[in-house]
């Protein structure tokens, strides 16, 4: 469906898309189905006006918006003998002079088609299709001719007539959302004096339309006029289909047209109208009319305005009947159409330019372009004259079938047959890309460095560039990274490649990396204490040269290390060779405090007892000490400062204290003497019954020189012995039994044990 949209009034928007069409059965106006048509281009295809300047001046700006949808209809459902019709109803119309209240008058699009199956047989048919109209206006009082014809793919007879346009059911600016079928669709209301056959007032014999759909008239009134053409499709004398088209034309005042133009072959020295012109297959011919700056031009092929063909000449590569319409380019004049020139096509040859497209880099020019036959067969270049153009401009001094191109552009090789009619213009597109920049920046501006130092090189940045770095002409790094860190002597450069494949090599940079002298600096193990400590550092390094080497660090004096304080001390050995390159090695010396440890006096315990071995310790740079007791026998934990000891025999314990940082150590010892325990009973019964008749001192046998003394209540010594094992106390003195009483005793086992004292009781 074609909607001729007047852009002078408003522009089409999204709400103008998705139109709803109804299919109705003609016999009873039954709605068979609806469908929605869409357009992919709401801007539409602009009408081509014969005089574009006048059309613009008159506000004529019509576009053809085409809506479509593919559907399948079942012939068994669409078999009614009276046929079917489609409608689309919308509001409203332009301010036409011949319609009553056009702003509230709708328009209805209408097409009839026959049954899809007749007498049980599928009926094949194509509805007639109106040809796209030219953009025209009517000059008042001037004969006017307009093509309203249609074509029919089946070759059915077509009959044309003027009819009153349908108004439809949409009024007051409201569109009909759901299509309405009717046997009496409302028509527009003509203003007084107008009718279907007098929609545009004209001189006698008025508006006429012939059997080819050509409308003729000589208008007598100015204004904008709507009319409608109906085309009937006739087969075997029966009307099987109908299609209607509403259209509008504007009548304006025009001044006289220019004289009828002649068409001649361009560049021909004889400028007389040419009735027939030949062009060769695969070639072209140019025809022209007189050039005049006061004229507008519009070329036609077979009476159809050609889009964008509005210069004084036209290039033709299709056969047909060509005319040119001219009018003045100021104001609105009547247009004048030339006589027809029939352009025919004769046999020709196909030529191409090799290459037909070439992309190259600037360092690859010139690009050789050569005209040759497409099939590669030989031809005689001397049979043609040549004129090369680039981007539409002639290239001087190039009458050859070969051209060396040095610039980007669209190249045409126009070749004209000498003594013949053939003209060809093969083409080639040449794109010459500039070379990328290839620049290296030495970011530290040093060309000479020492080993372990670096020279950062940076190449220029750019879109999608790739870099190939070279050292001494050997590729060493390919990547999108524009940086390189130089570590070795050499001659450096970079090849830069852009995304067109164009390459450029940078200038070279000669860079020198001098070696360092290998040096040795042995480990300096920790020292314990600073007293009289002098370390000769020469014993730790090699090589050494007093003019090139030096030591740096706290406590360093020349080649001697003399620490004054404890802790860590970094020392650097620095050696400067003949290149001025400095080798450095660092060592950390450590001077630690010697730990202090004190265990105190020796200790005595009785067998089976325990004792805590208390130590007093300090020292070490960070006071983090490691404890190690030996022997470990009888100790609950030999790795703590004060373990619990329970030796079974007299044992000398040694505590070794070590700094966890430096392993500096110190030690002390303690003797733990283990003595037998003397068990002293509190009494006995010397009654001569051979039971408990003697005061038994268990363990006294371990002390052969033990002194035992017993005193009575008045402090008189009643018993004394230095050999108690052989002379135990039996409660008698001089064979006289002592009375039952409590006595005081003193036992001196040996010099290491305090005297044991207490009271015993003689029981009788």
From TrEMBL:
Pfam families, sorted: CHU_C
NCBIfam families: Bac_Flav_CTERM (TIGR04131)
Protein name listed in UniProt: Gliding motility-associated C-terminal domain-containing protein
Organism lineage string: Bacteria, Pseudomonadati, Bacteroidota, Cytophagia, Cytophagales
